[in-house]
Amino acid sequence: MSTGSLVYNPYTGVAVLLVVVLLYKVPALVRAWRNPLVRQVGGLLTVACCVFIFVVPSTIKKVNDVTGVTNFSAPWVYSLLTGFCASCLLLIIKWRGGLEVKVRRATFWVYGSYGAVVTALWVLFALGDHHVERVKDLDTFYATTPYMREMIVLYLLAHTVAVLITSALLWSWESRVRGTGWLHVGVVVLGVGYALNLAYDVAKVIPVVARWTGRTGLDWMSTDLAPLIASLGGLLIGIGFVLPHAAERFSHRWSARRLYWALRPLGRVLQMVPAASAPVALGRFESLDLRLTHRQTFIRDALRQVGPFMDADLREATRERHLAAGDDHAVAEAAADAAVILDAVPRLHVSSKPQHPVPRPAESMRDLAAISRAIRRSPRVRSTHRAVPNQEESVNS
């Protein structure tokens, strides 16, 4: 296929995904732009987006038409792909770190070698005969054309070397980040993505070499198979870069949301406690973290207010009863704390002095979420708390 079938190409979906990933990373890039590692990630994602945008057949056709140079997209796409290879190497070099002198030397080597490759690509293109436009099968069509042949081999060689080095560094780093959760998953996904890039190079090189021997039956590997492999590899690379940050952020928000709602029953019970200071009014659209902090602070302050009215004997009796019923230690502790809170809150309203010689210290109540769940779920908590007359209904509400 030469210029037909420009509507569908597997590169299109990956281009859209990478643009979404880049937009997702923009706020982090702006906040931490002075960090060289962050800038390198931003540069790599930008070049990757450009690669998958300009390699789409319809875009290739458009660039050729706009520039007026037949097959101008070939060295342009190859240059972007070479820049992507260099960005990958630079990112891995900065990730691994090490002595500043070695990092600087490796960075200089990457810039110098891949800059020379890009220059050579354009020189070879200018020297070659490329008057027949090929939108999809340029690699195989010009595989035997002087200078164009060398240009194709050069970009494939540069890509293969970069992918080999990047894959080796990633898989050597994988053992060092085991046990780090989503970071390890991201490194593994990146490793698989770059391994697929090696398969892409194989799918490109084999039909080109076959053309040198006069065989055309393997062209489908370059025109049909290689785009699918490259698209899957690009998809995994994009996911690998965004997954650790996105998953950690989602996990944090999910945990914060669960804790916020878990503390709601305890917060409702303690709303009856007179506030030690003026309440803080939160806006309707305040962040979840701020709302959670506010709820935790309110509960801690209220527990300090009601702490002197907590009955240590009641707590011990409740704890023993739960243990005897077969509950584990943590459940029994939470149920006992819930019982003394439910007992102490109404007493705070009818007495200005503690009635228990050994009150329960509020500071010892550490697992507030477990206590709140005990208030909401455990029927034994309500059966063991000794409510003051005329206050039980308001407390239970």
UniProtKB/TrEMBL annotation:
Taxonomically, the superkingdom here is Bacteria
Q: Which InterPro entries match?
A: DUF6545, MAB_1171c-like
Asked if Translocase is a keyword of the record, the answer is no
Q: Outline the segment boundaries, as ranges, of region: Disordered.
A: 374-397
For this UniProt record, the keywords arranged alphabetically read as follows: Membrane, Transmembrane, Transmembrane helix
What ranges does the record list as Basic residues composition bias? Answer: 374-385
TM stretches of this protein: 6-24, 36-56, 76-96, 108-127, 147-170, 182-200, 220-243
Ranges for domain DUF6545:
253-375
Designated name of the protein: DUF6545 domain-containing protein
